[in-house]
């Protein structure tokens, strides 16, 4: 029997149609913006929506166990997809004006940051975050660290990786809370097994929240 990776990829027509539509929307918007047919305010608003839809599409592929690269190869859309990502990343460098954003407090930086994260990079970032979670939990569980600075560095690495992923503000907050609790009880973390186990359990719960968010079920 041939391994699963050798099996031909079977894709529902609706999935192919959705990807075609998403990419064409981005291309059409960009072309009209470049030609001065639509104004920057409208362009930025609509490209933001298209980017969010492309993110959701990628997460839905993950739910269906469909590998993006294989889908793109089958549909001969790899170059087009990269082109769409290039457009999204180019747009992230634009100065988003207050006319575009109703709330000017922090939405500008959050949107720019989200746009700057390439959709193609998300699977790799997911692996980085998962690895960071596991490394941190193992380090605390084994209790072989001598200095709290090591654990704190692992927390910082985890937070930096989570920051790369759009829409994870709540996860970041929960990680930060656990990190502060650990710093305030550094001796207890090393000497009290029950306490360290509770910390690992808390980190694992946040990890499960992260996994649930990947399904984008709202």
In words, what does this structure look like?
With 218 residues, the protein is mostly helical. 73% of the residues lie in helices and 0% in strands. It has helices at residues 13-34, 40-63, 68-75, 78-91, 107-116, 122-142, 148-163, 169-184, 186-191, 193-214. Helix 1 crosses helix 4 and helix 6 (122-142) packs antiparallel against helix 7. The longest helix is centred in the N-terminal third of the chain and has 24 residues, at 40-63. The model is unreliable at 1-6 and 95-120 (pLDDT under 50).
Low-confidence stretches: 1-6, 95-120
| Total DSSP helices | 10
Mean pLDDT equals: 77
If you compute it from the alpha carbons, what radius of gyration comes out, rounded to the nearest whole angstrom? 21 Å
Please name the defining characteristics of this protein.
73% helix, 0% strand, 218 residues, 10 helices, elongated, disordered N terminus
Give the SSE layout.
Layout: H1 13-34, H2 40-63, H3 68-75, H4 78-91, H5 107-116, H6 122-142, H7 148-163, H8 169-184, H9 186-191, H10 193-214
Helix pairs in contact: 1-2, 1-4, 6-7, 6-10, 7-8, 8-10
